[in-house]
Amino acid sequence: MYFITNRAYDNHLTGLDKLTKHPNPKGPNELSAVKITGNESTGNESTENESTENESTENESTENEFLKIELLDDQLSKEEVRRYKQEFNLPIDEDEPFYASLKVACEVFREAKLKGKSVVLYVHGYNNDVKDIYETACEIEYLYDVIVVPFSWPANGGGAMSGTLSYLADKRDARASDDALNRVIDIVGRYHRLLVQSTWNRLEVEASNKYPENPTKQREYLALLLERYCDISVNLFCHSMGNYVLKHALKSTLAESRQLVFDNILLVAADTNNEKHEEWVGELRCRKSLYITINADDFALSWSRRKPGEEQKARLGHYLRSLNAENALYIDFTNSKAVNRSHSYFDGDTVSRNKTVRRFFEKAFSAKNLLPYLEYQVHNNTYHPK
Fold it and tell me: What is the pTM of this model?
């Protein structure tokens, strides 16, 4: 699994601790790519067999000893660039410098095409260390048959007892990471266009040859061909305070996050103010659907609302009023079976007991049509999964 991160990497540490909780010493906008390999079933087997949960917890530290983390070289060799150029028929000059992001994009694209999977860029939330993020990403891959690429910003990971100071520190790190997320989104969009360009060009010629005198038929046929041969969806998933990072990315003067890059955007359990959220949500663009999920009983968001200052305002992810962003579909999971007070109701513990919730995330992560499975509630502008 590849991570894109603005965390500092310390080779003197061991295991996943090498990716520290501190920002990159070159600045919070400096990005690195790391590859984590090893026991990718960590955190997944317990979703299949709940009776093994205690045993899995006891063996957790042992399992993670088998994980290997590798910092990718910043710049690719000419040989690597030439290899990727030939394999993917890329319109690039191999004598120009290319960086680790090209390697990650090509490797992920190859796997997505080979296995017919969608790609999910995952922006995690507050108090997540690298182990938490990795295990969550593995679980999402396992449950929903997608490829997850986490963008990891330096959340403190201070533990349950870290309290208000850690929460506020993470909010500062989140704000400092806004342009790093903008850079990641720009890279995703740029390389996705590059990787599909040669296929797109070929299909345009095919459509033109089939209907040389009818531009309307050309466009219709091209759309069918693109769906058949360029059917990899790329989706953005922001969880909890990851939405706060996105919100501030949209306020940046760079704001590559406003680009049309993703098929679906999912703002799940958003730890941001409900108040005036339509202003920044309205800046988001996607090809298909933008979902905002809500659980009014979300314990973590109820807790964050008790923090001092602006955090006392109602959080977007647990408030069922003032839901008026015109480009968003609000999905209300409150009182859904097995959701209870969960903050991560996409996880195996919830969806193993609620197939309706599982179907929602399965289709949303793959940009499939969800409207037949949603029931509109006119009184508060929300949809209930059915």
Answer: 0.88
